[in-house]
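Deliverable D2.4 — example input (structure tokens):
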């Protein structure tokens, strides 16, 4: 059982500039969603980040809401929160696969997203994973978004160390930067 397997967690990054997250929540199972939000909010606060919350009808709408916010609002990163519990039809597979695929495509296109959409077999699994005192998948999703924000800031502009950038016509040139790891 994966829940009992030991795993490593990275320490939260340090930020020198404010961080603002958007939690995009599908509250279909309200109690599960509330626990995911609580875990994500605690982690965000621990890193000094602020957050806003928007709700959408279901997990399939989360990627669209993230994309709208990415285009029309000013957030550093996004935390997708929701729960899909297997039912009697193949709709479960569609919702799980398409919501995950949508978030992945947005991430590959530059959106900084922590995916906290639970995909579980039953309510008991959802409750354990959402509970901030147990598996805290909401907190884990917020931490993932924060780590991606830190990486994006680290690689956004030179700060005194040496690196390479691609210039016009694909020519590489050296840049100087301090190589610092603070975001």
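Example output (designed residues):
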């Amino acid at each position: 059982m994966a829940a009992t397997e030991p795993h490593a967690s990275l320490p939260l990054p340090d930020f020198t500039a404010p961080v603002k997250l958007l939690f995009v929540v599908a509250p279909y199972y309200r109690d599960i969603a509330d626990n995911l939000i609580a875990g994500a909010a605690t982690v965000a606060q621990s890193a000094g980040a602020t957050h806003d919350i928007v709700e959408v009808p279901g997990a399939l709408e989360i990627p669209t809401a993230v994309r709208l916010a990415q285009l029309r609002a000013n957030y550093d990163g996004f935390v997708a929160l929701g729960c899909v519990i297997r039912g009697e039809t193949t709709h479960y597979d569609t919702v799980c696969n398409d919501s995950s695929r949508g978030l992945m495509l947005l991430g590959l296109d530059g959106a900084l997203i922590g995916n906290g959409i639970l995909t579980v077999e039953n309510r008991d699994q959802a409750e354990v994973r959402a509970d901030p005192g147990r598996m805290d998948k909401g907190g884990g999703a917020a931490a993932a978004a924060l780590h991606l924000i830190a990486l994006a800031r680290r690689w956004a502009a030179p700060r005194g160390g040496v690196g390479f950038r691609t210039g016009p016509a694909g020519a590489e040139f050296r840049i100087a930067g301090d190589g610092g790891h603070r975001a």
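Residues 82 and 117 are 4 Å apart (CA to CA).
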